[in-house]
Write a structure and sequence with these properties.
The chain is an all-alpha fold. The chain has one domain. Helix content is 76%, strand content 0%. The longest helix has 18 residues. The two termini are 13 Å apart. The mean pLDDT is 91.
């Protein structure tokens, strides 16, 4: 598990940010911040599942390379 979490790595953060943004958009009915979730979706230009998959793929590829 530790090989996938690298807090000092820029590539790790570049994969985690889309993952967190996708989760934020997906959980909009739970947290109720629809305006902010819409702004994040418009800024990224992608839907929640796409952002989540990009984040998971980035973390997985980074862990597999190291």
């Amino acid at each position: 598990m530790r090989k996938y979490i690298k807090l000092n790595s820029l590539t790790w953060w570049s994969a985690v940010i889309p993952l967190l943004a996708g989760l934020f958009i997906a959980f909009e009915p739970v947290h109720g911040m629809s305006d902010l979730a819409t702004a994040v979706k418009n800024a990224s230009g992608m839907s929640a599942p796409v952002l989540i998959n990009i984040g998971l793929a980035g973390i997985g590829l980074r862990g597999a390379i190291k």
